[in-house]
Amino acid sequence: xxxxxxxxxxxxxxxxxxxxxxxxxxxxxxxxxxxxxxxxxxxxxxxxxxxxxxxxxxxxxxxxxxxxxxxxxxxxxxxxxxxxxxxxxxxxxxxxxxxxxxxxxxxxxxxxxxxxxxxxxxxxxxxxxxxxxxxxxxxxxxxxxxxxxxxxxxxxxxxxxxxxxxxxxxxxxxxxxxxxxxxxxxxxxxxxxxxxxxxxxxxxxxxxxxxxxxxxxxxxxxxxxxxxxxxxxxxxxxxxxxxxxxxxxxxxxxxxxxxxxxxxxxxxxxxxxxxxx
Length: 277
Known about the structure:
This protein is mainly beta.
């Protein structure tokens, strides 16, 4: 969303009115709450003589349509802002005093959405114009402790070829559609990052079932690794040995696979600190 392209005067001339939830107003889904005095119990959302404008602008990887609820003035004068995002995601509410570039957004609150994806914020507005935005603040891990984090995901339906229930999809299946709704007939397609582990598990199950067979289990204690070579600034070889006992054949029969990788260890950067004499 290009917030910088929205003119503050336009926002004040064109107030947005909608329902409590699921309202998209205008092209960029902005909402304004005009009021003469937010601390007054008689101040209404529809007052046109305003001293403060509350804007909700969403910055999210997913689509923004039908996710912003109209901000509400509470009886105590606070402002309630709701956003319908993804379940268990963290969302940050930020404020700015103007939409004139360069815009400076200051953090206010970070809350976690409930299982339905609804997240609520409450702020006490000041007497000057204040604009708000909500952005997805969920942290994406760089490293995972498990190879497959989708082990607990429900398995996909795997119809046989003879059943006639295998859908013909052209040119390729959408990886963000679920296996039980492969062409998104029920609008269940999800690009939520937290759903990817189950998308991945379904795709893996389909490939193993229809193409390559199941991945053999290997006990982690039967995997060893060693490195031989020079220290920093040199090269060496990483050797990984995987041993898998066989269920058939003579006692203690096993199959072993050895993988070798050339590895170059970079030299440390030159020291640029202060020197003494």
